[in-house]
């Protein structure tokens, strides 16, 4: 009985020690869990900030441009003669967006011939320009240009394939393929021998593959073609092409020779916008005013102008 009591005391003592170790371990795990939860909350907050920043950058660098119809002159430096006339037409178009700056009213842009002159002017807090019987203080600032993009479009146009759309599902699919082949084989309508016809009844489109190149090109220029179904129907035709966007680059920069003059107040003595521009040009050409030779200058009195930059000159567009 004494041995059993002693054994019971040892077991109880061991149980108490084990319970204490487990409780200590639970306490440590609880503290560890609290630290991890705090870290998780911080990471989630940082993630939301990064997502917001990423969305802003995506929106900032997205291209929204409605390209107007423009007459384009295509030139080729190296013309490669190919015996295989069946090869598709391959072209590469390089698209380059010029950096821009929005010039507000009461601001001017000056481009100097030397970088060091622009750097000297930017070190000044303000410049006092003499105009007629008075003077005005202008603030030179560094220009912040909008981001610009540059990319290439690699285009591949088939000489033998013709895209057909707006085909009414008026007859069964198999018969429709036959009617399309017959219609596009008519030489009197500008067609030619058809090698293969693909037709999708669900969206009313198809692809006509001609045996000889050139037929698809001439028909694609028409944009419309008459096919014989239950009756004569005009369908829409066009070229089949593939394109890839390559070498996409976005960049931001600061012009080293161009500065912005801000806070240019209207002066009653100077009525003409060009007169004030001349006063600005005279002032910033003088070496005594830390100026130098000016390549171009543009002052906006009351309207906003868009300034386009390129490698060797500045162009202003209303």
From TrEMBL:
GO cellular component, one term: cytoplasm
Boundaries of every NID domain copy: 108-195, 208-296
Pfam families: NID
InterPro entries assigned to the protein according to its UniProt record, in alphabetical order: Nmi/IFP35_dom, Nucleotide-bd_a/b_plait_sf
Protein's UniProt name: N-myc-interactor
Species: Scomber scombrus (Atlantic mackerel)
